[in-house]
Amino acid sequence: MTYKSTLMKAACVAVSVMFLAMGDASAKRFKIAVGDAGGSAQHELGKKFVEELKRLSGGKHKAKLFLNGALGSEQDTVNDAALGTLDMSILAINNITPFSPTVGVFTLPYVILSLDDAVKLTQGPIGQELVKNTIRDAKVRIIGWTYTGFRVLTNSKKPIKTVADLKGVVVRVPKNEIMLDTYKSWGINATPMAWSETFTALQQKVVDGQDNPYLTVHSMKFYEVQKYVTNIRYIFSIEPLIVSEELYQGLSKKDQDILIEAGMLATKHSANYLRESEASIKADLIKRGMEISDPADGEKEFIDLATKAVWPKFYESIGGKDKLDNVLKTLGRM
C-alpha cells in the first residue's frame, strides 16, 4: 500500500468515526410534559406513545416523559408548546379550552355519556375539526387522546347524593368556566385551583373535595385525604397529547407520519386500558377506605340543572348551537 493510499484510508476512517460520534442529525429526543403522576391514564398513554415512536422510527427517535407537572402547569405547557419551547404535553382538555374554545364542546356537562361516545367523537369528523381548530387557535396539534373516565366527585366531609348535599362543601375545580358554571348551576361556587396545588389543598383542608376520574384519584393517592366518592357523570375526561405545531412543521413528512401513527396506536391503547383497569382500581379504592355512592334519582336533578343553565351559555364559544346539535346527532341523541 502506498503512502498516499494509506493517508486516504486514514482520512476516510476519521470521517466515519466523526459521523458516528455525531449521530443522525435528524434524530429527535422529545420532551413530553405529563400533568398526572405515574400510574395514571396520562402516563399509560405516554408510555405507549414513547414505545411506538421508538419502534416506528427504528430507534431513530426517542422521547422522555416528565411526570406530575415537572415542566409546569398544564395550561403553561400549552403556551410553551405554542412558542416551540416544549415539544409535547399530555393534559386535560379543559386546559386547552381557554386557548381554543371550540374544544369546550367536549366539556359541556352530560354531553359524553360513555367511553364509546368519547371514542366516536374524537376519532370521527368532529374530532378532526377540533384538531384543525386547535392548530389555528393555539398553535398546537392534537395527535393522541387519553380516555380517563368520568370525573367522579370526592370529598372528605360527607356522602353526597343530592344537589342539596353539596351545601357547605368546598370543591376544587380547574380554572375552566364551563366547569365552574356547572357547579354554580348546582348552587355552589367552586374554587378554581391549579392542579399542582390540589393535593396539598385537600390535605390541609383548604378545600373539601375535587372531581377526577377513578384512575386519577388512584394514581394521585387522593384516598389518603378523601373519604367519600359520588358517581357523577357530568364530564367524561378526555386528555389529549399535543405537539408543538412549530416542531411538527419542522419535521419531514415521514417523521410527521410516524408521530401521527404513534399517537393513534397510543389512543387505541388508552381506550383498552380504561376498559381493563377501571373496575379493579375502583375496588382498590374501596379497600383503601373510600365509600362510593350513586346520586339519587339516577342523577336527574344534577343533569337537569346543569344542561339547562350551562349549555346555552356556551353555544357561542363552541362555535354555535349547531355544533352541539351535531355532536348529539352523531351520538344518536337527536
Q: State Rg.
A: 23 Å
The unreliable regions are 10-22
SS-based class:
alpha/beta
Helix content: 40-55%
In the CATH hierarchy, the third-tier topology of the largest domain is known as D-Maltodextrin-Binding Protein, domain 2
Distance between the termini: 85 Å
Question: What is the typical, i.e. mean, pLDDT?
Answer: 93
Q: How many alpha or pi helices?
A: 12
CATH class of the largest domain: Alpha Beta
In total, the number of domains comes to 2
Short description:
The protein has 334 residues and is α/β, with parallel strands linked by helices.
Structural account:
- The chain has 334 residues and is α/β, with parallel strands linked by helices.
- It folds into 2 domains: 28-147 and 238-284, Bacterial extracellular solute-binding protein, family 7 (D-Maltodextrin-Binding Protein, domain 2), CATH 3.40.190.170; 152-235 and 287-330, Bacterial extracellular solute-binding protein, family 7 (D-Maltodextrin-Binding Protein, domain 2, 3-Layer(aba) Sandwich), CATH 3.40.190.170.
- Helix content is 45%, strand content 16%.
- The strands form 2 sheets. The chain has a 6-stranded mixed sheet with strand order 7-6-8-5-9-11.
- Strand 1, helix 2 (41-56) and strand 2 (62-66) form a beta-alpha-beta unit.
- It is globular, with a radius of gyration of 23 Å.
- 40% of the residues are buried.
